[in-house]
Amino acid sequence: MVQVPGAWPWAGAGAGGGAWEAGGGMRTWAGGMRAPRLAPGDPIRCRCSVWQAEGVQSHMTRKKLMLHTFALLSAWLASARQSDASDLYKRLEKRDPEALSKPLMPSIVAIPVAEQVYPDWLEGTWDVSCKFSGYLLPVKQLSKEQIMRDVEIPGFQKLSIALLPDVGSSASFQKSFRRRADGKVVEDRQAGFTSLINSYVGSSAVKSVTCTNDRDSIELIPGKTRNAERIELFSSSRDSEAVGDIFVCSDYVRQVTYGLSKQFGVARQVVGEYQHFWTFKKKTDYELTANLLTAAYLQPQDPLFFQAPSKAVVVYSTDYNFRRG
């Protein structure tokens, strides 16, 4: 597994193991929890006021003031993203659960994000095996019982997290990274989602996958799974950094899952938000290891939302082994 210096404070709720019995497609996770290998660090903190940044004049019209403020805010957010990305590895080393909160950007201004770029040594097709390695409930104000009853939390139902279709289970699939025309290496998400979901579901469940820089649309064959017929993924914040043979990246995702409902002619729609934190470590030209931390958040309509409006209420850890196919 990926080794990063430091130690997680894994005391408290979630550290005792036991059964996971939230219902709705849940698995039972027995045994004690093993600490995930890494997590993000301090969140971005704004210490400036956009209203004072350039001495906004009192005679400006309301429209001009709004446009001026929006321009300043957009510029600051873009700068914050660049600064935050440059020290992602250091933040991950801190292993502070408080740092798994939602990024500032998606809640203020929706800025299109570029496709994630990966190091050259990830290029190619890999045979991947993964194994669930533990979970954590970092919000002390919420009891384990309160969280387990909330089946709308991402990960508590199958396919509520597209990259982890059945949290708690193991799987084997293929993952590919290709070189674009500009020479940069990106993930083949279309092939990746198809192989991943089919492996977890246990059959050829994926009908089609359409991808753009910041959106993925996954259509499933009707009847293959009861929890989803179509999945829409929207990415609104990404960071990455390479340090030697280690590459770290994060992706904040809003997932909308459409499926069958009890009401005839009306599709069931479930919205979830979560953030992925990947760490890849190169071992040889033909083998690498990785860890994925997935932080799940509450939606505003959730009764527990105001107790954790921006903090991760559940964190899942999954370990991966990559071998060239």
Task: Output the keywords.
single chain, globular, DUF6816, 5 helices, 17% helix, DUF6816 domain-containing protein, 325 residues, 10 strands, 10-stranded antiparallel sheet, alpha+beta, disordered N terminus
Question: Helix and strand layout, with pairings?
Answer:
Layout: H1 62-86, H2 88-93, H3 104-108, E1 124-136, H4 144-148, E2 171-179, E3 185-187, H5 189-201, E4 206-211, E5 215-220, E6 230-243, E7 246-259, E8 268-284, E9 287-297, E10 314-324
Antiparallel strand pairs: 1-2, 1-10, 2-3, 4-5, 5-6, 6-7, 7-8, 8-9, 9-10
InterPro entries: DUF6816
Protein name: DUF6816 domain-containing protein
Domain DUF6816: 116-324
